[in-house]
Each structure stands twice: as C-alpha cells, then as structure tokens.
Amino acid sequence: xxxxxxxxxxxxxxxxPQWSRFLIIARYAWRRLFDSRWxxxxxxxxxxxxxVCAAFIYLPxxxxxxxxxxxxxxxxxxxxxxxKFLSAQGQFAFILAGFVGPGLxxxxxxxxxxxxxxxxxxxxxxxxxxxxxxxxxxxxAITWVPGLLLFGFQGYLAGFPWLAENWWIxxxxxxxxxxxxxxxxxxxxxxxxxxxxxxxxxxVIFFAFFVAAGFAEAISHTLHTDLGHxxxxxxxxxxxxxxxxxxxxxxxxxxxxxxxxxxAFCALCYLLLNKKLRxxxxxxx
Length: 285
Fold this sequence. Notes:
This protein is mostly helical. It has one domain (about 30-45, about 75-275). The chain has 14 helices and no strands. The longest helix is centred in the middle third of the chain and has 28 residues, at about 165-195.
C-alpha cells in the first residue's frame, strides 16, 4: 500500500495475553499431529492399560465378584500397583516421544524459519515452551491424567479413610510423571534441533537410551559398582519412582545420585538445545 494514500490503520483487535502466547505454537502443531491416523490409533492403544487397571480396581468392590473370589485377590491395590502402572505408561510415553519429538524443531531449523518466530513477540523461552507443550500434553494424557483418575476411582470405592491415608500416592503419580515428561521433552527437542532428518532423529533417541544402558551395564559389571547406572536414564527414573512410592528396598542407586544425574541430563539437553536456537547465524569465510 502506498504511503501517500494514508489508507492503513493500526490493528485494534484483541491481543493474545503475554503468558499464553507460547500456546499459539502448540495449537498449530497439535492440529497437524492429530491429522495422523496412526497417532490416534497409538493413543487408543495406550488407553487399554488404564482400562484394565480400572477393572482390577472395581472388581473387588463388586459384591457378586467379591463373594465369588472370597479371600482371593486378583491384584493387590497398593502403592506398587500404581508404580507398575506408571512404569508401563512411561514406556509408552518414551515411544511416543521418539516418534513425535523429532518433528517439532527440525523443520523450523531446516527451513530457516526460526527468525520468523523470534522476530515476533516470542522469546526463545516461549518458543521452547510452545514446542514442549505439544509433547507434554500428549504424554500427560497417557501418564498422570489416567493415573490420578485411577487413584481417585480407588479412593471413591475404598472410602475416605483409604484416601486420607494414601494421599501421597497421588502426589507420587503426578511428580513422577512430570519428571519423566520434562526429561523426554528436553531430549526430544535437543535431538530434533541437532538432527535435521526426522527418521534419523527418532533413531538417535531410541539408540541413545539403549546404548547408554549398555554402557552403564558394562561399567557396573566391570567395576563391580551400581554407580555405572547413572548413565542409564531408565534406571535413574526407575530409582526416583521407587523412592516416590516409598519402596526403598529396590533402589540400585542412592537417591541423591539419581536426582543429580537427572538434573545433569536435563541441563545437558537444555544447553544443546539453547546452542542451536538462534535468530541468525554468522557465517565466517
């Protein structure tokens, strides 16, 4: 539009609140992801385990089934029941991160689209939060959300005394899920930022876990110490989950070492991601 015509006007519509602008990135990413039929099928498969667990919780409270079973219990509904549920869903979450995560950042870097984001009222932190929220919502839908629903279902059937005595199980489900979500999101975004090809990035995520687990096992057997398992993120997370669910008999790592290893892993992923997220790059000849 020619300037001399003076026909332009400033935008007078509603502005997106500052705190929620990162969700704009997530909204369009979710729209693209949910166009995939395979993702929807996988999410449905991930809901089978919560449905089975809900059946195990309900059956002992059904009068006819309780009379039929007598003193025999199909499954003991205790902290270990919820820990095993979280462990199973955590493995589904890992597979989900391996398939969804690599496509979050790599297309923006491959097509030099990052300057288009950062020239708008977006900070790098908001960009990272927007990308993380895409994966975090999907993983939440198969970890702590059904976990808390199962915990609430058991509390409703068992009564308030059980709920008052075991409230910490709900907190363990929530905290345990979120530390796994944060670790997976940071790893997926870091790999996506450094590897531009989606298939290769997904392969790197899977192999990073299994190769690290192999190294951890070799070091532990060679040096006759369990400290080698700090290289195995699965073992680190498992140790923290055991601790959260008050099962300290199966800890293969000291809990302080496990928390330190997790913090170091997340910090490393953040540094790798931060190094790649630049509005521009200086090319030296």
